[in-house]
Amino acid sequence: MRIVLFGLGHVGATMAACLAEAGRGEILGIDPDPAVAAAVAQGRAPVREPGLDALLRRGVTAGRLAAATAPDDRLRETECALVCVATPAEPTGGGLDLSALCDVTRQLGAAIRDRRRAAAPLLIVYRSTVPPGTTEGVLLPLLAEAAGEGPGQHYEVAFNPEFLRQGSAVADFQRPARIVVGERWPGASRRLGGLYDHLTAPLLEVPLAVAELAKLVDNGWHALKVAFANEVGRACLASGLDPRAVTAVLLADAERNLGAGYLRPGGPYGGSCLPKDLAALLAHAGMAELSLPVLEGVGRSNALHLAWLAGRVRARLPPPGPVLQLGLSYKPGTDDLRRSPLLELARTLVVEGYELLLHDPDLTPARLRAAAGALGAAARPSLAAALSPASGVRLVLVGKPVPGLDALLPEGMPVLDMAGLAGF
pTM for the full model? Predict the structure, then answer.
């Protein structure tokens, strides 16, 4: 495959070197900085990155890798254009500067006009970090304007976020945990033309905006973990404890503390343990006059999420409803109502003027009636009765899994499901 790669910083230089090492094609790296382009052309890394020098040197020596400041006529014959140009932070506001990305996009669009007789369409793969919606809302319109046509016939577009860490970029590229490909429609990029066929990592094909946001969320999660760990460290030292000993206990539970447990969008947390123990940790830190803003913000974020859920109900169906809420205890498989966010959500909806019907398979009819009566809502021990035409329900709010729900839902009934925030 003939490849033109734009941007020879950490991401671009690493990708060019690794693709050349794997023999994935003839690669021309493009960088407007003459010093950067000259370094790569001579087999030298333009950035400090372990292992990169050797890979670049072998790629150049083998004739699989070259570099220049401009692609000249190579875009007429290339099959794949990889865009790795920088999108630095703007001075204020937290936005990203997309100017270099847009310049390359216009250049690619103009090249598409010149290559319409090429045997194969051009595959354009964006790797530069962008806000969600950029490819569809900014880059595709620029390409269509410059090319004189939209994607599909003479070119196709994909967004392939990078997850390379400085200092381990070569290893991250050669042994990725997953490869994410954003596409206009499933299969549009033809698995990126086989670009990664030599790697064994799972390839996730997702919509363009999902791939864009996934990159930002990934690094947001890493930043949160660092800040959390440092707050834990400060709390440990305030107690005269070794932070490594405390975090070793945390890390010993790989399934819940390091795995997917609790990392599913849904309802707020509640129950007798999480709110109480978080408050106790913060109280302990307060006695030591220690500020833990990440942990202090957790409770506020939880309360804001509950208010957001109530707001989404209002947006879908203004009071009085009726609304059927499925679930009242704080999580599936328990009848515990202590500090239940579902109980608080029900209370909020009643206060806002909703006619609220409640069903929870984990509560006995007597407990359900007592809880509903205290809220000013109506208990429905039977799901069939709750969803019967006589109930008049106009919206179903699912707070926990309820067996048999799909079979009983009337056709066209709006459903807001907290599991994954479906329908919200």
Answer: 0.91
